[in-house]
């Protein structure tokens, strides 16, 4: 009876008085909408289907990376190696799908596998050897990049199978495959994060590693897993990018980790661990994408674009601090 | 007699968090040179009111007067400038900095002209402060090297050192040993003589009646009454707090001890913590583990739970030796450990009430890897009801719960694992008297169902009132065992200090 009562009061007050609370909770969604409205007014080319398709394709790579990054950041970690792993996976996949009579499937699996493998190495270094995530993945960032150049001998790999290129260019019911991949990844990861025990472990480890351990959770395995997820998704992003630009470039993905981290942070996930949300990351990636795209359309110089992007990240964090 | 304005007058103060009421329309008047106790159950709004006075929260409504003039302590800094200092219930020192650096944080003594920190002066001043108060803490130690009670003392010294007019103490003694409590009380008496106002929050009744001049009671976020302490007795006070009569604090222990051995610890040692510790707990027994702070009680519990490795000796469950390398193993064997430090080891603060309660029992509220939401909600609501946890919803973040209610969450979490052996480390720290009684009843009830309990506690009445058998530790060694019939406070104390006498 009593708890029933308090549940009701909670809902009532929530419904009526909480404009401020809602605003801070869903503020980034409003920010995204605001940007879309402004750009639609300023540039007639913005809200066209051609530009939207283009925008979504651009966003898809960062979105996939950022979804993986969210898991890592939720555990109070960071993964600086995703850009390099993306390049490594991309070049591996490319090498498998040169020419038209190659095994597409094998190529994709190899690329994903390469990402997963490097992610697992990150996991071991962080979880078992207790190296701080920043250092561990900084090292991996260099290692993976180096391996990419070694494997490709510094040369781009082109002449990829036509079938493979469909991933990056084709679509289904008018929606690019890249977007489908993001949506499916997002759906699976949402289930993983919000509906499984593992998801709970992720939040607990990030929120208080000590308490998680004392509660009998397998902290090491949880940490291992999040770096595997991040690696795997970096591999997926690598496959996607390779298909879209129809070649494996050893220098691709440089500084992509920064955009991924930015998307996560703009999305409201705390770098201190234990607090955050996956849909926010997706919105964060869209905000960065819309910003890039819109500033291009408005012919803002790329120098200024960087300044504006940086400012947006800082503002997002400032606004977010009000949330807690 | 001239009418002197109150040192502090809080009038009609309300505070809402996200539209939900924490306190409404409370009043508080503090007289100069007095100790004003603020009493109430867990979640009554004591800390919230004090956080408003000390600038952590802005009140939603109400005014604050200081010596008759309205003040606006809207930041902790502003409050300090007005002369209001606070010792918080949840301590948050900067662990990587030294004791002196913590005390002088934000007001470091500087060399003239060059404006660099004058470390020698800082350490000298800190040392002097400690000497004046008869404390033996090294100012150059890092905070992380101190024990909880030492950290508490440092926070007290820090708050006093601002030379404020008003000093708020939110449960300052919850982790202090008797000796330190006496030190604190002599500090308080000095402050009183200097005409300061002290606002004192504690759930320990005996303390309140020893030092309080005025007593104000809150209940459910509302102001109930203010009385002179000498006009009140414990029963009336409790009735004002709880809103009903409360009879015995300790339940009659119904004999529940079976012959069957539940856990036996045989000669375990962990160098640096304790050595050659042996004891046994029978099924249905409450074993009290006591001693002075730092006697190694918590460490023994941690060792049993796999948080500290043991070098030699063995642990047997129902006569079978078991291997415990980490908490996971202990949990698997039906051992639960309600840790002493709820912030460090107990709770995941950014998670909700529900998520914390089920954290150790996720396998019971899931099928395969998937969580069973409805099931989890039911289990959590059940615990909230059973332990009378004051929360407006199971999805409330535990960091926004009152201290005592946070403690109940830790307890709930471990009860949910259905342990055979429940280790409780200071289980009622910061818990109000009504809830304490509930917990004691629960302990009694559990033992009747065949649970065994090891209770670590520094509170004598609790040790004496609840234990079937008492083991006294001193400096990592078992000094003796007392049965509940023979045990007296004097006997326990003489065992607890036996080692110290020799040297
Ligand atoms: N930041 C916050 N957000 C939401 N609710 C809060 C917050 N801080 C406190 N509350 C709520 O306000 C109420 C009063 O809490 P408060 O900490 O003042 O209690 P208390 O009297 O100090 O209790 P205790 O004796 O347990 O320390 C509680 O119900 C608590 O959940
Ligand atoms: Mg409190």
UniProtKB/TrEMBL annotation, chain A:
GO terms for molecular function: transmembrane transporter activity. One of its GO terms (cellular component) is plasma membrane. It is found in: Cell membrane. It comes from the Bacteria. The chain crosses the membrane at residues 23-43, 55-73, 80-98, 104-127, 134-151, 163-194, 223-241, 278-295. Keywords: Cell inner membrane, Cell membrane, Membrane, Transmembrane, Transmembrane helix, Transport. InterPro entries: ABC_transp_permease. It is a multi-pass membrane protein. It holds the Pfam family BPD_transp_2. Its main location: membrane. This is Ribose ABC transporter permease.
